Structure formats: C-alpha cells, structure tokens
C-alpha cells in the first residue's frame, strides 16, 4: 500500500519512523506550499503541496497536520477516490466542513476514517448508544505546558507555576473542539462515538500535579455505566500531543493495509 502523509510535525514523524520497516510505503508528504524545498525526506518520498500532485497509485491519505490540514486537503483526497485517515477529529465540529467531507466521500466512493487518537473506550461508547445512552462526560487534564498556545491562556497565566488544578473550560464538545483545535480532538472523538457534540459534557483542566495527559470518560445509560481513564505519555517533540495519538494513526494505517481488519 502506498500512502501520503499530510504534515511533518511530531505525529507525522512518529508515524514515518514506525512505518519504516513495514510493508506500507510512504510515497509523499503533503506540506504547506511555503515549506516546499525545506523538508528533509528519505529517498523516493515526494514532497508536494496538493492532492492533485500525488501519483495515482497512492491509495490512502493520512492527516497528521491538525484541523488546517484536514480542511485544506480532506475533501480533495476523498473526492479523488482515496480513503483518508485523520487525527483532526475536532474539525468535524464544523458542520460546513463535515458536510463537505461527506459529499466528497460519496462522490469519490471513499471513506474518512477517524483515528482513535489519545483515548480508548470508544468502542464501548459506540455499542452503548444502540441503547439509551444517558450522559457522557469527558475530562481532559494536561500539565500546564500542554495548554500553552491554547484558549486556556485567556483565563490562566501559564507562565507562572500553578499551585492547584484549574478548570479553564466547561461546556459541550462542539465548543471545546472548535475553541481548542490542538487540544480537544479527544472531546470530539468521544462526542462522535457517543451522544454527539451538543450533549457531551466537557471539562478541560490544567493540572500542575500531572506529568501526563490524562483523559477520562464517564458514561451511563441502558447498558450500565463505565469510566475509562488513560494516563498518556506525550511525544518528545510536542508536549501537547499524546504518544498514543500517533500510535493510533500507525495502527489505522496498518489495519487498512491488511485484508482482514476492524
Ligand atoms: N485525535 C487526537 O487524539 C489528537 C489529535 N491531535 C491533532 O493532531 C495535530 C498534529 O499534532 P502534532 O503532530 O503533535 O502537531 P505539530 O504541531 O507537531 O505538527 C503539525 C504539522 O502540521 C503542519 N501543517 C499545519 N497545517 C498544514 C496544512 N494545511 N498542510 C500541510 N501541513 C500542515 C505543520 O506545519 C506541522 O508540521 C494537532 O494539531 C491536533 O489537532 C493531536 C493529539 C491528539
Ligand atoms: O494528545 C492528547 O493528549 C489530546 C489532544 O491533544 C487532543 O485531544 O487534541
């Protein structure tokens, strides 16, 4: 299988290393046009700025770039008949983009796959919503440095040492995903697997007492109840992003390359 990756940041570089010894070939990197010419890649990897420049034997496009990457290239990739795997789940909180991607996937007879990202337990939520799924609450807790550059800085001074955990967002998953494009993709993944963007309750916390990204899901409904908690190590190149998010992209690509999968 030949793939193209959108983005060359922390998640993309993890994925590139992980695939190096696999049967999946990285054929191209899609970067911002101003970065063309300044990206180091292995021999045989084409660096391009648009889907139209991909060779016809590239069957999958994998978005590791964040909301801007999915927004810019997602629909073109799907319309060209290529399946897309994305980590930028929060971008789907924008209804206009969502329907553009749906239309492109229908037109291209292709599919947008959502990587599970930094969280687990989404399979249980998906099954539970076949019954009445009453409430779903997601709590995202990161060390203060993990919230730098985000909307949290409008309510917290992250340059000084926090003395106790501070909630900087309480609301629904749609507002969280749109306000925190680099930090609340998990909120969107939980919403899409469960009760949707409006009904998913979200709390985002800067916690000086944690060194990991901690994600919790609390759900109850006809099925019973469950709590899922993960304490995720972050990627060395980006203190915002959990290593598991990058691993879930690798898992999604390898799954797509096999004749039998999930
Ligand atoms: N679903 C999940 O659980 C998670 C999702 N994410 C999402 O993944 C994104 C990437 O994470 P990292 O690799 O850690 O960030 P990063 O900042 O290290 O890398 C992002 C890369 O994408 C590139 N990029 C941005 N817009 C682009 C565009 N339009 N076309 C091509 N390249 C573009 C940037 O130049 C940069 O190289 C985050 O912004 C976040 O939205 C991150 C962590 C968890
Ligand atoms: O990587 C993480 O721990 C979660 C994250 O940034 C997101 O949900 O966008």
How would you sum up this structure, described in words?
The protein has 262 residues and is of the alpha/beta class. The chain has 2 domains: 2-114, Rossmann fold (3-Layer(aba) Sandwich), CATH 3.40.50; 122-239, Dihydrodipicolinate Reductase, domain 2. 30% of the residues lie in helices and 28% in strands. The chain contains 8 helices and 13 strands. It has helices spanning 10-19, 67-79, 95-108, 122-128, 173-179, 185-193, 196-199, 243-256, and strands at residues 2-6, 25-30, 46-48, 60-63, 83-86, 112-114, 133-142, 166-172, 200-206, 213-221, 224-232, 234-235, 238-242. The strands form 3 sheets. Strands 3-2-1-4-5-6 form a 6-stranded parallel β-sheet, sandwiched between helices. Strands 8-9-7-10-11 form a 5-stranded mixed β-sheet. A two-stranded antiparallel ribbon has the order 12-13. Helix 1 links the parallel strand 1 and strand 2 (25-30). Helix 1 crosses helix 8 and helix 2 runs parallel beside helix 3. The longest helix is centred in the middle third of the chain and has 14 residues, at 95-108. The mean pLDDT is 97. The structure holds 1,4-dihydronicotinamide adenine dinucleotide and oxaloacetate ion. Oxaloacetate ion is lined by residues 118, 182-186, 213, 232, 240-242, 245.
């Amino acid at each position: 299988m030949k793939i193209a990756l959108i983005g060359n940041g922390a998640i993309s570089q993890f994925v590139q290393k992980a695939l190096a010894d696999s049967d999946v070939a990285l054929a191209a990197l899609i970067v911002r046009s101003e970065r063309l010419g300044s990206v180091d890649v292995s021999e045989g990897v084409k660096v391009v700025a648009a889907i139209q420049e991909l060779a016809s034997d590239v069957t999958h496009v994998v978005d590791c770039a964040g909301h801007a990457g999915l927004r810019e290239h997602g629909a073109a990739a799907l319309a060209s008949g290529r399946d897309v795997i994305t980590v930028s789940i929060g971008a789907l909180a924008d209804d206009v983009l969502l329907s553009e991607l749906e239309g492109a996937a229908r037109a291209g007879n292709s599919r947008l796959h959502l990587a599970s990202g930094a969280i687990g337990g989404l399979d249980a939520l998906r099954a539970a919503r076949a019954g009445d799924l009453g409430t779903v609450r997601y709590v995202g807790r990161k060390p203060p440095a993990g919230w730098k550059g985000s909307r949290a800085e409008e309510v917290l001074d992250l340059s000084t040492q926090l003395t106790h955990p501070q909630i900087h967002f309480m609301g629904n998953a749609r507002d969280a995903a749109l306000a925190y494009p680099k930090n609340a993709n998990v909120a969107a993944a939980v919403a899409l697997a469960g009760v949707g963007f409006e009904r998913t309750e979200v709390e985002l916390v800067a916690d000086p007492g944690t060194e990991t990204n901690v994600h919790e899901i609390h759900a109850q409904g006809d099925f019973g109840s469950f709590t899922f908690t993960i304490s995720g190590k972050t990627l060395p190149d980006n203190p915002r992003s959990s290593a598991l998010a990058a691993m879930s992209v690798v898992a999604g690509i390898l799954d797509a390359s096999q004749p039998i999968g999930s």
